Amino acid sequence: MSKLKMMLLLLAATILVLSACGKDKDATGDDSNQEYELVKKGNLTFAMSGLYKPFNYEEGGKLMGFDVDIGNAISEKLGLEPNPVTNPFETILQGLIGVKYDAIIGSMAYTDERAKQANFTEPYYYSGGMVFVHKDNTDIQSAEDLKGKKIGVVAQTTYDQPAQELSDNIQYYNSDVVALKDLTIPGRLDAVITSDIVGFESIENGFELKEVGQPLWVEKASVVVRPENDALRAAIDEALAELIEDGTYDEISQKWFNRNLLDVDLEGVEILK
């Protein structure tokens, strides 16, 4: 056998071995997330408004908050690098459908209408839609007293439609915290409808506000993915279950709220649909 023929045979054998190794590698690990349709390979890119403190907000040029920590923990469970990004809440669902990011981990509540456009995981926390007024306000004792009043709300949130049903005088904001801040200024607003958690957090931070009655409803904040990316939805559900089971979820929730946001008595409570 000539030296040239021997070299060609050795080269062919080497290529076959390398090819087989490459296939084994794809099947066993490095590309184990290839079944997910990710906008950036090896990363879980998840969106939020960045204006919903303490769930998600920017401080020192860095995204922080409960949603961010949950997203980071989910990413770790999936073997992906976390890549949190911001998008205005008013168009955040459109951005997901437009493949700007893989998921929304930004306190988006499940509704039947939203579920027509995207897939929702099991809830990663519960919160209530609540009316807040200035602490000195004595005119508004219940939601029924909001007729004709000026209500502050973030557009396209679950609080938008109920506000429209209660009053035709709506002031729109891109941040619940800004709306609540305006509520502390005489003459700006009569009330704000937002999450009970966000409202109570603002009161703890010195906002001169008070809640009106009980929450109007309880909503299920979930992770949202595109309909065609159901493998990712299933994997995130599994990751959430593991985070709850191993205590990571409770640790994150205690860090931000000194309580577990999933530990809620839902008996007899209206769940937002």
UniProtKB/TrEMBL annotation:
InterPro entries: Solute-binding_3/MltF_N. Residues 1-22 form the signal peptide. Pfam families: SBP_bac_3. Keywords: Signal. The keyword Repeat does not apply. Residues 43-260 form the Solute-binding protein family 3/N-terminal domain. It comes from the Bacteria. Coiled coil: none annotated. PROSITE patterns: PROKAR_LIPOPROTEIN. PANTHER family: ABC TRANSPORTER EXTRACELLULAR-BINDING PROTEIN YCKB-RELATED, MEMBRANE-BOUND LYTIC MUREIN TRANSGLYCOSYLASE F. This is Transporter substrate-binding domain-containing protein. It comes from Sporosarcina siberiensis.
